[in-house]
Amino acid sequence: MVFVLERLFNPESIAVIGASNEKGSIGYTIFKNLLNSFKGELFAVNPNHPEIQGKKSYRSIKEINREIDLAIIAVPAKIVPKVLEECIEAKTKYVIIISAGFSEVGNMKLAKELEEIAKKSKKMRILGPNCFGILNIKHNLNATFIDSSRTKIPEAGGISLVSQSGALGISLLDLIAKNRGGIAKFASYGNAMDISEVELIDFLAKDRDTSVIAIYIEGTKNGKEFLRALKEASAKKPLIVLKGGKFEETSKATLSHTGSLAGKAEIYRAAFKQAKAIEAENIVELVNFSRIIEKQPLPKGNRVLVITNGGGCGVIAADHAIKEGLKLAELSNSTKKKLSEILPEIATVANPLDLTGGANTEHYRAAIEAGLKDDNVSSIVVIALFALPSLNYELVDAFPKKPKKPILFIALDSASIKLIDKLETKGISCFTNIYEGLKSLAMLTEFAKSRSNR
């Protein structure tokens, strides 16, 4: 039976054990983040200070006169067992152990001690140790030690991210934010002493706020359950996974990082394929795949139309499209006739559709509308070079809001990059690299095909 993690991500009360007044410390940052985000009851626990960041501090969680939904432990590793015992006595429901210094550094004795203590309570569940914490953007929960002055946190969206590595998870969040992706939930699970990637995947598969699940994993302790969770989740939602530690030379690094044996990449790749999960080859793909699949409608076919005001850029985009298994759409005769009446005489009414260097907003509008109406076109890629003087920022108006076919905008110069924010709000996925854009579109197309075959 899968244990429901709802209260972990939606606690009504939180105690931070190891909360601090020392700026720059983990205990300080976690407590500050919660003060700035959490709307429930928040308690500081630190026996050395009567007050933490303006709030009363308790010597122990046992002194708080109520049961706590979530305790976050950020104290030295050697103190964690005693603190965990106190959490059990206080009937705490969930615990996140941020503290490191256990199996990932070879301290098996201390790790075993934690496990034995955890067994005393059949009800209390533990995330970590050696983790970064959790986010629930929609419900204003930032239970991490992210320094928001240095790292961007994404706005609310449909992507939920599970990461075995806390540090990489934070980097992925920053990349998602920079690329205008939206996050529902985030969980770093570290050494997975208790709550593992399996339970997190099971939870997110049922989570209403999550439309896409993205995972970074180095290794799993239960291959059969992991495969089962992947299969069940991917049957409900798009699931994108990045495997770390793919080579024998890097398996030792994963053991020292999260205390997990990496396992052969071929085995994991076969498992991902069997589960119909989408495998990303790197962190850029994990982010790009997640955000395009969150935002774009699924294409009904693999026929792409490339629209540009720079012929060479269109040729390169077409090359990448074909390389990735896409086909160049053959515009219908009626579409060609209509475009010939609107576009300049020197425009090439073909695919790529070269609007020429004199293209303006109305030319792009006509081309995009034609592509959306033409049944021969499954998706559209738009490139606009602003070095050419006939274009201005009114080009945004040429794009429909929430189009029924996938539309990608590829910004190749510094001027066109300024359109990205406005286009993303209209439901257009934007890239600053032709290859990344076409690779992501190919993935989306293949995913749509696999869904239609289920």
SSE layout:
Layout lengths: L5 H4 L3 E5 L8 H12 L3 E5 L5 E2 L2 E4 L11 E4 L6 H10 L4 E4 L10 H11 L6 E3 L5 E4 L4 E4 L10 E9 L2 H13 L3 E7 L8 H10 L5 E6 L5 H12 L4 E5 L4 H11 L6 H10 L3 E3 L2 H13 L7 E6 L2 H13 L3 E2 L4 H10 L10 E2 L6 H13 L5 E5 L23 E4 L3 H4 L2 H6 L3 E3 L2 H19 L2
Parallel strand pairs: 1-2, 1-5, 2-4, 5-6, 6-7, 10-11, 10-12, 12-13, 13-14, 15-16, 15-17, 15-18, 18-19, 19-20
Antiparallel strand pairs: 3-4, 8-9, 8-11
Helix pairs in contact: 3-4, 6-7, 10-16, 11-16, 12-13
Annotation keywords:
Rossmann fold, 16 helices
Can you give a write-up of this model?
The mean pLDDT is 93. Helix 3 runs parallel beside helix 4 and helix 10 crosses helix 16. The chain is elongated and about 80 Å long. The strands form 3 sheets. A 7-stranded mixed beta sheet has the order 3-4-2-1-5-6-7, sandwiched between helices. It contains 16 helices and 20 strands. By secondary structure, it is an alpha/beta fold. The chain has 3 domains: 132 residues, Rossmann fold; 145 residues, 3-Layer(aba) Sandwich (Rossmann fold), CATH 3.40.50.261; 156 residues, Succinyl-CoA synthetase domains (Rossmann fold, 3-Layer(aba) Sandwich), CATH 3.40.50.261.
